[in-house]
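In the current project phase, work has continued on tokenised descriptions of protein folds. One protein thus recorded appears below exactly as we store it.

——
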Amino acid sequence: MIELKGDSLTFDEFSRIVYRRDPVFLHPLAVKKVQESRRWVEGHLLKGNKVYGVNTGFGKLSETSISAMELDALQLNLIRSHACGIGEIFSEEVSRAMLLLRANALAKGYSGVCVETLQRLIDCLNKGVHPLVPSQGSLGASGDLAPLSHLALVLVGEGKAQYKGEILSGKQALEKAGLKPITLKAKEGLALINGTQAMTGLGVIAYLEAEYLADIADRVASLTIEGLRGVIDAFYPEPHSVRPFPEQQKVAARIYSFLSDSQLVTKQGEERVQDAYSIRCIPQVHGAVRQVLGYVRDTLLIEMNAATDNPLIFTESDQVISSGNFHGQPIAFAMDFLGIAVSELANISERRTERLVNPQLSEGLPAFLSNKPGLESGLMIAQYAAASLVSENKSLAHPASVDSIPSSANQEDHVSMGTTAASHAASIIRNSRVVLAIEAICAAQAVDFRGVNQLGTHSKQFHQHIREVVPILTTDRVLSTDIENMAEAIKQRRFILKEGFDE
């Protein structure tokens, strides 16, 4: 069981809940804070005080007062009218991430919801009721209004959800899970949809995948170095000690440890003085990617545990404050930066693949790693596929965060496009996973020609794992399945990495 308190959710807990479905419950302190916040809302309603989103309209309509008899209808109308999402449905993991992160934000006790409403979000998580949320339609301020509205619809028995593999109406899904729809009270509809949980949920999933991809990239690059009989001197600690980026130093040390007992690597001057940049500069490029991952990690960790709706209720000082915590700019920047970094991980990988298959660059390997060059094309077109994906990444890496478009009659006149940035980053990660899968296939084929028995201990183990997924290429065959299988094996983390980056 994992406790939600609103301020201490970790990446490990996120993974356990989203992927492994560990159960969740509210910490008693969170329950107390939520109850206090709700009492504040109800007290001010009794006094007739005007509070945005509680007894007023929304956005440009914030000066319109709503009668006491229509407050519940106001919240339901909000959810229905804002459910304008379009496009493909987010994955089940993203839906779970949104449920989790919205519950964690409300558990902070600044949103004025009923405990029962918050509990229903947690019930959906624990019982596997996953709202179907369209992936397009968010401007990233006032948060993820459209995606979160589709999430909230299921809580009131509307919209659609997936339950045990079956797509049902929200009402049917709740009933099959033994749950009842909730009735939204004053402020609750706004509290459910005013936040950054779509971009943040998608962003955390993308970050976790990118982190593993960076680990795999070091492994794959090491195998390529052996396939090309690379010069190991570039990974000695001395050059990295005088440009002391910690991430660069760690990547160099990690790759050096993988290659330290290899009989395939060479030393400076034995066969050549130095390698091309895509080999020699791996620590500098992979290390810089790690720097970006650190920035993204820190940004997401704050946002995972933040109150991002509006207005926020501060019971201790008896204040309700309209502010802009729903604005997704921090996540938009982080996701754009993540996409740029991972696209570079793919760019340098594709260049290494080219060196493996190009007979003018491969240090004596057969052309295109074919057993019968000319009669057979070997892995020639695998490099084409990688080149296509890195080119696509360059378009996707154009920053979404530099764009903005006014909405709500110019009341909301600057937005973040953070969910677009997160979606682009996720697409870049998917593409880059395939690019690295292609390099891994080519590197494994190269060392088969060189002699697997000469590999270093770590690379020998990694090569064996690759061969469990993709058999050696002895004659031309359809490679699409091999590439897909390798990419899926990376996604499923089937390669056990005994050495973590920080070890």
Summary: Residues 38 and 56 are 17 Å apart (CA to CA). The chain has a mean pLDDT of 95. The chain has 18 helices and nine strands. The longest strand covers residues 86-89.
